[in-house]
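Exam review. A common question shows you a sequence with its structure tokens and asks you to describe the fold in words. Practice with the pair below. Do the first one on your own.
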Amino acid sequence: MTCPTLKLKKNEDRRVLAGHLWIFSNEVDTKSTPLSGFQPGETVTVTSASGKPLANAYLNPHSLICARIFSHHTRQALDSALFAARINQARNLRQQCFHQPFYRLIYSEGDLLPGLVVDRFDNILVMQISTLGMDIRQNDIAQTLDDLLQPATIILNNSTRARELEGLETFTKVIKGEAPDRLRVMENDVPFHAPAMGGQKTGWFYDHRMNRFALRKWIKDKTVLDVFSYAGGWGIQAAVAGARAVHCIETSETACELLRSNAQLNNVADRMHITTADAFDAMTNLKHANEKFDVIVLDPPAFIKRKKDVEQGAIAYQRTNKLAMQLLNENGILVSASCSFHLPREQHLKILRTCARETGHQIQVVEEGGLGPDHPVHPAIAETAYLSCFTVRMLRE
């Protein structure tokens, strides 16, 4: 196929040659190929300053990331055949790793489909499109998913903030079938209900699946505090794994109702204690009441969403982890997680060291986790490895 050319400035091809999929607007030779000359969503061939073809990409001239590469083969079209090949490739990986059809089916750049996320809940698919280039191909993507998987329902949850950066409206709608009141989820052989419409992200967070499974070894007959609980992904699984008591803190009453429902679903309601409150306030109250726990899980929302938030976000991470350490019994276990890409693992670990020192502890890192195999990391795109998770053991000085 022949596409219009998007020429890069001299020496701005190094990231592309290393396998990266993003082109920033300041990397483009706009004298030779002005961005205003392209149609939004158009397919282009990216070339070096010398004119050497490098890759094919779709383009949004109004976005900071003005082009996203979908193939390094310049004859490849962004069409149904490519979608089918990439979706099948992604599905094969998930089927090797999980024995039930509950997983992130498409992980954007990690599955070489930039701007597209699809979560699978058995015969229900929740699709999220964050870029203009994918948005104008929405029908082709949905049809390909329908042809390959024959889902009963496809929900388009386009509520992500990233769409605003691309000049796109945000909304959620059903594009095939009917949405149930709640999604059915199976994670680590534990059943859950999650919101079908209007929940956080696509309704569930599959990214911590392997870390939640790893938690089981620390749980038997222990008291557990699960902070930022949402629908109980950590807390319910801890109770099912044999925790003596699980205390959950969640600020959303809607999420707490879901938590109670999931506790009933798993017959662990008698061991669940649910508090609807701000996490910082609730943890401070527990500290003042001299409450102690054997295991604490901190899986907060992203405190650092943008680079300019790093300083304030790091303070929030330090505050929560310090409070958690003050609430742990001797030799207690803290699972400290972050989904902020702008908090590198080294800084996360530094925060844990600082909190340990300030609370009179030494810590042992006994486990380090990350994303599961349904979130494959693109080795050239650091942003695809956004999650860090440390399991540390507290030791008194």
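Now try the second one, then compare your answer with the model answer below.
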Amino acid sequence: MKPLLTIIIAVEDNHTIEDVRKTVESALLQTSDKVSILAVGDKPVEYTKEVLSEYSEKNAGKIRVIYTDEKRGAGGAFNLGLRNADTEWIAFLNEGDALSKDFAEKLLETADKTGADVVSCASNSPENDTDEAVYNETEELDDFERIAIMCANPGELESKIYKRSIFDDNGLWFPERVSFEKLGVKRLALLCANRHEHTDEKLYFFAEGEKETELQDLYDRLDVMTYFIEECYKREFLEEYPEEVEFAVIEDMYVKTLFDYINITPPRKRKITFLEMLAEAITDCFPEFETNPYYYEKYDDEIKDLIELHVTSPYKFIKQTMKITEIDVQ
């Protein structure tokens, strides 16, 4: 039977070999017989190659292994996987994460029953708490309205299956050699979809602990979201979904970057130049962003007051936050 779903695994040597085994085995143990696995090593070390080759030899016809010829990050690994996948559906799996054994079976079943081209599930990530809540709140809306709201609240890219045509027909690719490569793509994929469905069963499990954010990661996030703005402009999503696209930029390019910078930078090392650049970036894109209804609803008054201070005077913002070492905006 020809597989329906390819699970693309990005292997970056960021975890232990035991974590890699856990990830690959969770894909191999899927109860559905309609699954193929494509493990993409991002120029892995020799020992990782040996382990991946071992799985390939023992599971011939079930798992393929390919490698990037240079370090391209998870974005490069997923892109190479997309180019080599030949099934109707695709899913993305990170090294270190794991799938429930019925991940593929449950989500393909939901897709078959509903005609959706994106199906999401619950996971152990706080980001995915929004999927179930938003989906339940939008059940009475039409597909256009639901997709719009899901764009503003996309959850995680990985805890979903996608019709491959969403990527092929719309020329969607991941930015490469940068952190936060999934930010824009997960929203663009939803905007390019026709119908989204959700199951509240917890079927995707992210690895515990996250890579610590560094200053270069924040610049990467700005680059990724610049790509997102350009793609939305090119595809006319700014006209179709103006409030949702604006909020995506507010949240991912601006708010998270601003407060991550505060959280990772000691007070006396915070640079006025970085804060000025960030204020200019958001006001140049969306000068009236503080009137966005999603922004207004999501953030509490304390956060909004700090943001207003930042865009008005980065210098006063630095003085105001001198004694603050951590700010939670979730």
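Model answer, second protein: Residues 5-205 form a domain with the Spore Coat Polysaccharide Biosynthesis Protein SpsA; Chain A fold (CATH 3.90.550.10). The longest helix spans residues 242-264. Full marks require stating both points clearly.
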